[in-house]
Amino acid sequence: MELPYRFDVTATTKQIRDEHSLLAEGTSSGETVTVAGRLMLRRSQGKVAFGVLQDTTGRIQLFAPAKVTPEYDSFINLNIGDWVGVSGEVMKTKRGELSVKVQQWTVLASAHRPFPDKWHGITDPETRYRQRYVDLWVTEDTRETFLMRSNMLSLTRRWLESKDFLEVETPVFHPIPGGALARPFSTHHNALDTELYLRVAPELYLKRLIVGGFEKVFEIARVFRNEGISSRHNPEFTMLELYQAYADWNDIMELAENLIEHLAIELTGTAVIAYDGKEINLTTPWRRTTLLDLIEEHAGLKISLETPLDELRGICDSLDIEALPAYGSGKLLLEIYEKTVEPNLWDPCFVTEYPLEVSPLSREHREKDGYTERFEAIIAGREILNGFSELVDAEEQQRRFEEQLAQNEAGDEEAMVVDFDYVRALEYGLPPTGGIGIGIDRLIMLLADVQTIRDVILFPTLRPEQPPSEQRNLE
RNA sequence: GCCUCCGUAGCCAAGCCUGGCAAGGCAGCGGACUUUUAAUCCGAAGAUCGUGGGUUCGAAUCCCACCGGAGGUACCA
Q1: Positions of chain A with pLDDT under 50
Q2: Bases on strand B under 7 Å from any protein CB
Q3: Considering the entire predicted model, what is its pTM?
Q4: Interface predicted TM-score of the whole assembly (ipTM), two decimals
Q5: How big is the CA angle at A109 (ends A36 and A28), to the nearest 5 degrees?
Q6: How far is the CA of A114 from the C1' of B28 (A)?
Q7: Distance from C-alpha of A252 to C-alpha of A177, rounded to nearest angstrom
């Protein structure tokens, strides 16, 4: 069979539904259209047959009477899953189903593998993730989720551009991994004969751009972290990071909550979204509370950096927190917060004033010694963004890197190492700057009301599948 | 990484506890049917029961190992 190299489509199924929904039952519109898509259902009744054609925008019925449809016998022998192009009049059947009469048709591609059950679809998660190309066709929720993800990125870009943010691209290969406390993937460049790391965050490069004079920048960055996989973690995921010169953490908190409220309203129609059977109110302004106040509120513990180390360790023991000997007061406070507070925050809350010890890139709090102007937003018990007034002092940054290095050498594989060039950039002068990283995957999980990150990543990381032929070769 | 659960035809699955010829539906194949909506009806077919080993007269079923997946947990966003 000759398959065409191209095909002219004059209408999408959505355009047909939009333009002809008011057509009376049993009448024809007189308008001829050409549509294309995949045949999802087919029923033949002897001298008349019906099909359901699906394209990106939805579905439309095909109406094929034997005396109208050319090569009728071949038409009713199409396989479910075949791609077809159809031309004919838009009409509505006696039962009121808007249809395209099949007056001309052509096969655009044959499905040589059987398509999944038309009623049950596919439920096996492995098949859905490995063969997303099938899942997208047969599972409407999947299609809608990824359309929403695409829309969200588009809306985000437009919103930031309207505020004069510049979209930039920074390296994925980093000679020194930095910008987040995480284990990197490493790789090797042959010509340079050097070890390179896949970025765990674009942060340090973006701040170099502020030094370079781009005062508002953002990057929608795929980042890579060599950690476990769970319903909330994929080894590669997407972060929106943005930096704004002359801004502090308060400006950035306001920006972030406004962006997310805007996205919720545009994508779901309301700032009060449904998630996991409950409501989340994303209406701004969001609550802002310090980490220490939240610990007191949720655990009844009045503790701080002033609290003796032994006492903090005792609290960790009683909470079943594994506290390593190297942990200082700041790290212990963070652990206690994560255990007692984070899972219990539902509506959005900016958690503020993180200990300096666990925030190597954040600027010191302007009033409180030992704390930083850092915040995270927790929604539905999950951290979805992390930002701060950026540390601008080169000497202080050097000192913090060295502390990290000491921890790294003490065995903490997630600690940072010294990025000499980043310190050099700061020495040229970083103006007051606020910045933030937003977990795009987790945000779309909230807005699309899905419970696992794999449902918002088209091709989530899985153990590689061995094709049957390769299995033989390996033996 | 650890714990628990799952794997039966292209898809959805029963059977497993309590061992004895591997149900049914969809898709595919043959036939009937000129307005269907998961169309319906008739017919024929389709399964190394994830893989390997063990127990047994006999294993989809019980035991062990491995492979793949899911949920939880740890680290992390």
Answers
A1: 468-475
A2: 1, 10-13, 25-30, 32-40, 67-77
A3: 0.92
A4: 0.84
A5: 25
A6: 8
A7: 25
